[in-house]
Amino acid sequence: MIELKGLNKWYGDFHVLRDINLSVRKGERIVICGPSGSGKSTMIRCINHLEEHQEGDIVVNGMPLTQDIKQIEAIRRNVGMVFQHFNLFPHLTVLENCCLAPIWVQKRPRKEAEAEAMQYLERVRIADQAHKFPGQLSGGQQQRVAIARSLCLSPEVMLFDEPTSALDPEMIKEVLDVMVELANEGMTMLCVTHEMGFAKTVADRVIFMDQGQIIEENAPEPFFNNPQSERTQLFLSQIL
Length: 240
Ligand code: ADP
Ligand code: MG
Description:
Bound molecules: adenosine-5'-diphosphate, magnesium ion
Radius of gyration: 18 Å
Number of strands: 10
Largest sheet: 6 strands, mixed
């Protein structure tokens, strides 16, 4: 579903991603962790070309990522993304946020787009808030709306970039519960998160990044119980 081969990226002189190789099968759930500044966000943002890479190949669902805007758009249609700071449109209601891309990008009839959006809002248990504005919701509710909004485009892959790290502790669980359900339904997921309970419950593989490199990757059990690299051990000792 996702293939990164020999991926290198620089911000000016700064070598932010160093020879990243990663392949993700359909239905696989990958958790990415690592210190702040290690390149986690940059790596997942390269997958839907929110960031440009300079060397290496990215293939998503069989489509190579090239400079061709048509190809980039095709990949973006397959890839949903949820950010740390929800990024909802404040002047649109919850339902309007969800329907914007289906109506204007996918050219779906409004009625149909709204009916489907309501189904996804129900799945994230927030359908009763459909006519409110984002500012009237809690952080946890807004993040669930952001997840529903992504799902409205029927992505094949979901990328999550620290979706719970801006939330108050009591709201983290409601967002993680929705993510666990998505995982159980077989969604291919790449999640940058430091929620190690989530990683243990749903991840097929945990990846540790440091200084732009993948240092270690393993199934959760050996990853947490028997980390190989000193850097992984140090990181885990700091967060667990
Ligand atoms: P992480 O998500 O692991 O915290 P990031 O991918 O956000 O790491 O950032 C990796 C490194 O790249 C950091 O040192 C950060 O300061 C730098 N960086 C991120 N975005 C930019 C940018 N747009 N321009 C220059 N440097 C950047
Ligand atoms: Mg980040």
